[in-house]
Amino acid sequence: MVSDIEETEAIIDDILIWESDQKEHDMRLKQVLDRAREYNLKLRMLSAGKCEISKPEVTYVGHRLTSESVKPDPEKIRAVNKMSKLECVKDLQTFMVSAPLRTLLEKNTVWHWDEIQETSFQKLKEMATNAPLLQYYDPNKPLTPSVDASSKGLRAVLIPNQKLVAYASRALTQSQQRYPQIEKETLAIVYGYNKFHEYVYGRRVQIETDHKPLQSIFLKPLHQTPPRLHRLLIALEKYDLKVDYKPGKEMYLADHLSRSFLKETKEKETANDEHLQELQDVIFDGWPNEKSELLHSLRPYWTFRDELSVINGLLYKSNKAIVPKALQNEMLDKIHESHLGIVKCKSRARDVLFWIGMGQDIEDKVKSCGLCAQHQFLNAKEPMLMPEIPERPWSKLAADLFEYQKQHYLLIVDYYSKWPEVMKLDNETSRNTIDYLKGLMSRFGYIDELVSDNGPQFSSLEFKRFATEYGFKHTTSSPHFAQSNGQAERSVQTIKKLIMKSKDPHRALLDYRNTPLDIDLSPAQLFLNRRLKTSLPTSLPLLMPQNVNNREILKNLESAKGKIK
């Protein structure tokens, strides 16, 4: 009835009118009275206690509204103060509970009322009857929500211009009480924003927390944050927020409301690793304010403490599994099983794994490998010409044939992603070469250009017809200057090394395709937009498809090409 009248609110049969001056108030009152007449609604204007007009403060739906603030209804306060001791679970369920009282609601708990419950009960009554005055919300003033999490509960307050507008708190469930502290603090932000959605949605809001690591987490892209936080961070993406750290002692109502309320092998070895258990305790209990307060053994983790999390008994640095000491030698064997060099082994490991000193351990592993030393090439050839980088994957390919141990191979390399394809050939005819290329195009699509040498397989009339039929440009390198097909030449050297040193060339190719290049993305990520699952333990988020910024990739590829020159 009165929903279209400004500065007027109706809840069931209670109508509230407010204005900043008497003239506006009287005009608004006349509008409401006229509307009541239209609807044939009778108002008890003269009944005592039923109608109050032009008052500096009134009681409305359980609150005492004044010109400056909102406070509890005195009648409600008297009712709370007269409450007697609770006698059973049913009585308790009707009352707002804190931690000592809440435990009495749990299953299989014998009812008991001791001093600690009585103290908590009286404290809650005091809190209810001495609630802070709430100021009216002014949309023109900056908002500063403040949130906090304790071991038992969450709290959130809304403070524009250092004046309290709203506050809320709730207890944590038993499963939430087992969250690491950083996850509880993030949950507190989600709780606060959901509670104050009408105030914060659609505007830039700075939120206060006393958990400093959250500051840096909210500055990172989602894929670089701890996976346990992803669900909560996604829930906050609809809000425009900035996280600001504030020490607990400086926060408004700080801690007041919240304090009132190989997988099996890896898990086993993590549980048996004393060092990782100390780290896990710090993650769950919360990091100290200063690095000097940590155990010396945990100080190396300080700079990236906000990236650490515990999931199902395993520790992670962002999405990378932290390997317990007992499994590190096994992981080193897997990292080097394809006999890639030091740089590529480090890149491959750092993409999915972590432990303190891992880089040096990998160097020592590769340097001590007799097979790698035996097959070390001394390449002092003319420098290769660096080709132009195409704008997308599988657009321009390089092709070359090579021989190893009397077996002929055809190598295809994508210029954009460096993704290699290798096939044994029964013979080096154009027909065999064409059939293999047709098979590749049936999987990955047609290409724009193929670069090869002038071998008979590529210079035949049959191959020219194939290029015309499949609509790609065939570019050949100079017969006396193979370096002009530098992409294929470099890849031939790399693939030959893999085949020579590896017991399983297919696994070696898999590892090569999944090893990050100089731009920190692997051929698989550049070509397929995802990592490949290998023998190295990899968390699920790292195996999911990724969105790539093609413009940024091209920029990084050009930069990497310049460094090679």
TrEMBL record:
Residues 389-553 form the Integrase catalytic domain. It holds the Pfam family Integrase_H2C2. GO terms for biological process: DNA integration. PROSITE patterns: INTEGRASE. It comes from the Eukaryota. GO terms for molecular function: nucleic acid binding. PANTHER family: CCHC-TYPE DOMAIN-CONTAINING PROTEIN (PTHR37984:SF8), PROTEIN CBG26694 (PTHR37984). This is Integrase catalytic domain-containing protein. It comes from Mytilus coruscus (Sea mussel).
